[in-house]
Amino acid sequence: MKDLNSLMKQAQVMQQRMAEAQEKIQALEVEGTSGGGMVKLTLAGTGELRRVVLDPSLMAPGEEEVVADLVVAAHADAKRKLDEKQGELMREAAGPLAGLNIPGMPKF
Q1: DSSP labels for 32-85?
Q2: Which of 87, 79, 93 has its CA nearest to residue 30?
């Protein structure tokens, strides 16, 4: 029975760590860039687009397609960074149980 109690305590600690990691993810902000910094955008930890900054030189007539491509590329950059940070926080919270295929446990 000691092993079961120990396992339950570990599960409670991990559950608390996961909740703390979720709070940290909510507070995250990452910036993605493209075009050598001509386009910058910020994503919240939830994936919500918070801010877009465009270099004024991109506002020239005929640059619409370039701007669109740069925004998409900056978003992809920010999303990759966000996914990395979220995975890092969740692996940290899971501790020794990270990577195990436990039913009900998020994959990261």
Answers
A1: EEEGGGTEEEEEETTS-EEEEEE-GGGGSTT-HHHHHHHHHHHHHHHHHHHHHH
A2: 79
Structure-block tokens of residue 52: 């877009």
Q: What is the pLDDT of residue 36?
A: 96
Q: 29 has which bridge partners?
A: 44
- pLDDT (0 to 100) of residue 102: 57
Distance CA 55, CA 95 (A): 42
Q: 29-97: which CATH architecture?
A: 2-Layer Sandwich (3.30)
- Give the C-alpha separation, 75 to 42, whole Å: 8
pTM over 0.85: no
- Domain segments of the chain: what residues? 29-97
Q: List the chain residues with pLDDT less than 50.
A: none
> What pLDDT, on the 0 to 100 scale, is given for residue 13?
83
Cβ pair 40, 50 in contact under 8 A:
no
